[in-house]
Specification:
Helix content is about 60%, strand content about 0%. The chain has eight helices and two strands. It has helices at about 20-45, 65-90, 100-115, 125-150, 160-185, 190-215, 230-235, 240; strands spanning about 5-10, 245-250. Strands 1-2 form a two-stranded antiparallel sheet. About 40% of the residues are buried.
Amino acid sequence: MPLYQLVTASRSDPDRDWFKSKYIALLQCTLTVVTTVVCWAVALYNGHVKVWPIPMISHCGVYPPEKYIFSIGLVCAAALMFMFIWIVETAGKIYSSRTTAWALGFPCSIGLMVLAVCNCEEEPTLHYIGAISYFVGFAVWCLLCSFKELSVSDEKSTVWIVARQVLSLAAIWFTIGLGIFMGLGYDEHPSEVAICEWSAVLCAELFVLTFYFDLGDTYFVENVQEIGDESYCNQLISDDECEGKCHLSV
């Protein structure tokens, strides 16, 4: 098996390997989705939003008490996203890319934090700057990660690779739709805007969730190292020498 870009370090110390990297993906997805749904339910219960037209996610975090859940939950989700992007960047997988992480991944996690802290009613400018960074950055990041996986042969493809390709296309589609309907005016298209927004978030977070199944059980947060590149592979003379030192995956 060629060792080009598909090496993930597993230089393990049993005393330190206690938290698997895949759980960061699971936590990030779960926290984001649960926070938004809980905020919607609390806002609906208190009469701050209506069932129809479907409210935008931001409108579910305007008034107390839901705004506190909104801010705390999404700030924590943004911190997990930052860590998740870092893990993916250093995983040594075919989708790993320092450029993509710094250009799109990290800015979108910062955008999520900004929109969570800055209320859309109290600080609309900062809130929507953060929202644009999050939605556009995350959608394009997902698409680029999936685009890199197109080179994986059919026999080595997995259901998670296919799922990422479908979800990334859906996320970019709904993000574009969100931008179009917002441009046409929220007052004229409130339901379309909200549906596109909720759908874009759900697709992007399900995209993150696929990494829970892809990162495996031997890749720990404590041992994340930037050695999953071609230069490291070139130091290995054969696959036999690699056995026991690294984990190969496609």
